[in-house]
Design brief:
Strand order of the largest sheet: 1-2-3-4
Helix content: 55-70%
Oligomer: single chain
Radius of gyration: 39 Å
Number of domains: 1
CATH superfamily: Outer membrane efflux proteins (OEP)
Number of helices: 8
CATH class: Mainly Alpha
Order of helices and strands: HEEHHHHHEEHH
CATH topology: Outer membrane efflux proteins (OEP)
Length: about 375
């Protein structure tokens, strides 16, 4: 809403810019005697008259063109801010979606472990009843099952929080089940293109308008050396039945001492324009570095997520499964406890890596407006 209001204001300014100022209505008394016995008597002098007239200021064409350019730059800046804000909202919604998806995935990964935890509890009870186990093992398996329940409860709370955050962006649409995630290993815009099109990315959209505004300020300062004109016409009614008169006046500004006025203003505006150009270049380098950093992190997380899914998760599961089978066959419980905790940690780390991976994908996918994956 605020961006829409700013655009409306900029559009109104653009319509107004470069127009002639309103004319001035002038009324007065001319040639009134102020000394002598007939002081302040309107009819005392034949040239005394009541006047009414109109004066019109005529700014130079250069000044009016500069005003139009500044208004156009303001409109461009307002439009760029609106596009950037909309893109930020889309990215935030995408990141909220990723957070909910990752939270649900974490809950699923932990839920999958309940069956084996229950098996361990039953095995410890069976060994205790058969005389091959001990009470400490039975208590340890129950404690491990309770700890898993705590982890699941925390994951459920994470799902609720992530769902509430997504509802902020999607409203009632958030109540539907999530669609399958996109392939986070592929960006909708090639990485090389992202690095080539830095100026088209959302954080950089208003810099061109800033430079245009600085250029318009320089033009306005230079236009101050072009004289403004004024023209006026007035009608004078003389007293005592004398003939009325009409006056026509022209005026022009004389910038005859520019050294400490116009030249200083022009120099200051040039300095400001150079500062804006330098700041734009700094912002461009910073944005490029940020994108390069995001790409490096995204590539690293892509490798990590695939390695976790294809290697670490199966290894952790097999280790716990073998240790539990050994315990049921009479071996010590400690190897299973250690393997079990390692598997839980591996699954949580994998879910966290998925969340970070998806966030980086969203940050990169939504950099350039209108070329993103919904």
């Amino acid at each position: 809403m605020a961006d829409t209001d700013r655009i409306q204001a900029a559009q109104d300014d653009a319509v107004r810019a470069g127009r002639l100022p309103d004319p001035e209505l002038q009324v007065g008394m001319q040639n009134l005697t102020v000394t002598g016995p007939e002081a302040f008597v309107p009819a005392a002098d034949s040239m005394t008259m009541q006047t009414i007239g109109v004066m019109q200021q005529l700014p130079s064409r250069a000044a009016r063109d500069a005003e139009r350019a500044a208004a156009g730059a303001n409109l461009t800046a307002a439009s760029a801010r609106q596009v950037a804000t909309a893109q930020d909202v889309r990215q935030a919604a995408a990141e909220a979606w990723v957070a909910l998806w990752a939270a649900q995935r974490k809950l699923e990964l932990l839920d999958e472990l309940k069956g084996e935890a229950d098996t361990a509890v039953l095995a410890s009870k069976a060994r205790l009843a058969g005389g091959t186990g001990n009470a400490a093992d039975a208590l340890a398996t129950r404690a491990e099952r309770t700890e898993l329940d705590n982890q699941i409860a925390a994951a459920q709370a994470g799902v609720v929080a992530a769902s509430a955050n997504l509802a902020r962006w999607l409203g009632a649409a958030n109540e539907r089940s999530l669609a399958p995630p996109p392939d986070f290993s592929e960006l909708p815009i090639p990485p090389a293109m992202l690095l080539e099109r830095i100026d088209q990315q959302a954080p950089m959209l208003d810099w061109t308008a800033r430079e245009s505004k600085a250029d318009a300020a320089v033009d306005a300062a230079r236009a101050s050396k072009h004289p403004d004109w004024s023209v006026g016409v007035s009608y004078g009614r003389r007293f005592g039945g004398r003939d009325d008169m009409i006056s026509l006046n022209f005026g022009v500004k004389l910038p005859i001492f520019p050294g400490n006025r116009q030249d200083r203003d022009i120099s200051a505006r040039y300095a400001e324009r150079d500062a804006v150009h330098a700041a734009h270049e700094d912002a461009r380098r910073a944005q490029r570095a940020a994108v390069q950093g995001l790409l490096a992190e995204w590539r690293s997380l892509t490798t990590q997520a695939h390695r976790d899914r294809d290697e670490l998760l199966p290894l952790a599961h097999d280790r716990a499964h073998v240790a539990l089978a050994a315990y049921r066959g009479g071996a010590s419980l400690q190897p299973w406890l250690e393997a079990r905790r390692a598997e839980i940690r591996t699954r949580i780390d994998y879910a966290d890596a998925l969340a970070a991976w998806g966030r980086d994908w969203a940050a990169l996918a939504y950099l350039i407006p209108k070329e993103t994956t919904p």
